[in-house]
Amino acid sequence: MTTTYDPKITALLCIDFYNDFLHPNGKLWPWVKDVAEQVNLLENLRAIVAAAREAGIKIIHVPHHRMEPDTYKDW
Questions:
Q1: Any residues with CB less than 8 A from the CB of 23 and at least 6 apart, and which?
Q2: CA pseudo-torsion sign 52, 53, 55, 57
Q3: Which of 8, 22, 58, 72 has its CA 20 to 30 A from that of 38?
């Protein structure tokens, strides 16, 4: 079964793609390395992003943000 997505109404959300987690020189890489390598995390992320680009799907990077009082006060 092949699934297609209309690029006009579809986006790939990349949440928390931080170098500290995803780069071998990142501060937190040693904590996630074993699982990341076991599931081929980096290769799979590259493949997903490449497929979205090839399909013309918008890619949105969403950083994790801790809410604090008045976070949106000046927005």
A1: 29
A2: positive
A3: 58
Q: H or E segment at 12?
A: strand 11-15
Cβ–Cβ < 8 Å for 26, 36: no
**Closest of 9, 37, 33 to residue 20, by C-alpha:** 33
DSSP class of 25: T
Q: What pLDDT is recorded for position 21?
A: 83
Pick from 57, 54, 49, 51: nearest CA to 15: 49
Q: Rounded CA gap, 53 and 64, in Å?
A: 23
pTM listed for this prediction: 0.74
